[in-house]
Amino acid sequence: MTVVIGFEGSANKIGVGIIRDGEVLSNPRRTYITPPGQGFLPSDTARHHRAVVLTVLKEALDQAGLQPADIDCVAYTKPGMGAPLVTVALVARTVAQLWGKPLLGVNHCIGHIEMGRLITRANNPTVLYVSGGNTQVIAYSERRYRIFGETIDIAVGNCLDRFARVLKQISNDPSPGYNIEQMAKGSQYVELPYTVKGMDVSFSGILSYIEEAAHRLLTSDQCTAEDLCFSLQWQETLFSMLVEITERAMAHCGSQEVLIVGGVGNLRLQEMMAVMCEERGAKLFATDEFCIDNGAMIAQAGWEMFRSGQVTELEDSWVTQYRTDEVEVTWRP
Amino acid sequence: MAVPEFLSTAELLKQGAEARVYRAQFLGKPAIVKERFPKRYRHSVLDEKLTHRRTVQEVRSILRCRKAGIPAPVVYFVDYTSNCIFMEEILRSTTVRDHIVGAQQSDAGNDVELRLLAQRVGQTLAKMHDEDVIHGDLTTSNMLLRRGPQDKESELVLIDFGLSYISALPEDKGVDLYVLEKAFLSTHPNTELVFEELLKSYAASSKRSPAVIKKLEEVRLRGRKRSMVG
Ligand SMILES: Nc1ncnc2c1ncn2[C@@H]1O[C@H](COP(=O)(O)OP(=O)(O)OP(=O)(O)O)[C@@H](O)[C@H]1O
Ligand SMILES: [Mg+2]
Description:
The structure holds 2 protein chains of 2 kinds. Chain A is of the alpha/beta class. Chain A is built from 9 helices and 13 strands. In chain A, strands 1, 2, 3, 4, 5 and 6 form a 6-stranded mixed beta sheet that branches. In chain A, strands 9-8-7-12-13 form a 5-stranded mixed beta sheet, sandwiched between helices. Chain A is globular. By secondary structure, chain B is α+β, with helices and mostly antiparallel strands. Chain B folds into 2 domains: 84 residues, Phosphorylase Kinase, domain 1; 131 residues, Transferase(Phosphotransferase) domain 1 (Transferase(Phosphotransferase), domain 1), CATH 1.10.510. In chain B, the strands form 3 sheets. A 5-stranded antiparallel beta sheet of chain B has the order 1-2-3-5-4. Chain B has a 3-stranded antiparallel beta sheet with strand order 6-8-9. In chain B, strand 2 and strand 3 form a beta hairpin. In chain B, 38% of the residues are buried. Classes of the chains: A alpha/beta, B alpha+beta. Chains A and B meet through strand 9, strand 10, helix 7 and helix 8 of A and helix 2, helix 5 and helix 7 of B. The site of adenosine-5'-triphosphate (ATP) has 21 residues of chain B, from strand 1, strand 2, strand 3, strand 5 and strand 6. Adenosine-5'-triphosphate binds next to strand 1, strand 2, strand 3, strand 5 and strand 6 of chain B. Chain B: This is non-specific serine/threonine protein kinase. Chain B: InterPro entries: Bud32, Kinase-like_dom_sf, Prot_kinase_dom, Tyr_kinase_AS. Chain B: Its EC number is 2.7.11.1. Chain B: GO terms for molecular function: ATP binding; hydrolase activity; protein serine/threonine kinase activity. Chain B: It comes from Cynoglossus semilaevis (Tongue sole).
């Protein structure tokens, strides 16, 4: 039996999860929520994480009914927003030394993918990774999670957040994307820029267009309830682009499975992806609650890595930035 | 005979991401029919606009390339109601992708051969960009190698111009190369040197390449910075 504890805190969520051979023993989490119209700043987020991390850690151990001695490896998330990330890495490093356990830095995106594979049993899916900072289409080949498509400018989550700020009244609880979806039900279609480049997408044009148009509508008082409709067309366009590049990557790789991971993977996106899959005779996997950043996903990827012989030496454990395709996948054939 | 009826008797070669590709005869000539069918996942108004626009763009860019002497299939006929393009079938051809995969599997002397191929691709793309055609979907599946008669040099033919547009901006050309670079390296692991050769010959073949290569570097850097935030 191998038990791994995972620390996640690369953005506005802080979570600690414990995995024992494919079983989630505990997975508590807290989210740093900012007032409407405001994004989360690194320093404030780090302060939030610092204040709650030990409580969350205690919850994780208590809920799992485990002692530190039962843990085999301490995994922590790697690339992400500097200040909160350092906070979490510091705690992980400290407990690993206190408990005398090996330490393991885990690529955040690979955490999402491995958790998705565990929960859904998808074998070799084309992965759409959509989060606040990332938009990538990934597939596995020859020991790497290779990035076939991605945004060439801003991430889809970032785009939705900034749109939410334009509309001001959209709450950040639980996330702007979720609330845009709630407001977006049932409206007529307005054309927006649609930019697909091969397997890549671009969102900056659509954002500047909508920033300009929304401002015009709001200042001329044409926009009260109508702005709600706007969000619909907005997601219709954004999500169509995401489904399209996923399908392009599938055709390119000859893949018949799709897995959506990351915090932006909402219901409308899943619905559209399902239609695409149905038409191709492919299968869609979505991870729902485990889509959102959590500790267990770091523990799960850590579990795979640890079992295949990887550890991170203390002197190498300073947070370094690395891309998903730089990690050698030693645990898959 | 209406186009859909005609297609029901044609041989389906391939269902790609956005189109069905058939093999057929057009006025006695071997032809490929590319049918852009509706995508139900996206809003019907958006879908119709995109499909129509892409059919128009594909035809327009093929013509523009051919006029400039860049090999692309001859367009025989276009049906804008069913969004079908009838074009010349490139006979005795393989995709550059299959060619590279094959060359990487057999080891004898392929290094030189792949570098020659990379040079040819670089030259052709430079010529295309000098005509201000941005392909929009550069991958090794969208380039065909037509074998010449009796072992003569094979010819590179560009296809799949649905995402293309006309632009003189170095930024657009740089992004075009960036898209190719990523598709190339993720499709063909360990070909960094081959791709370098491609860029080198692109740079050598176009007077306007310095600004384009500079943009390519900028776009890459943006990608690297972005990868730092989860
Ligand atoms: N004129 C042609 N002559 C010979 N083969 C062709 C021709 N046009 C297309 N093909 C073949 O059909 C495949 C798909 O064509 P094309 O790239 O135009 O469509 P697509 O829908 O974009 O496909 P995908 O999404 O898979 O790239 C090509 O990779 C090539 O093998
Ligand atoms: Mg193609």
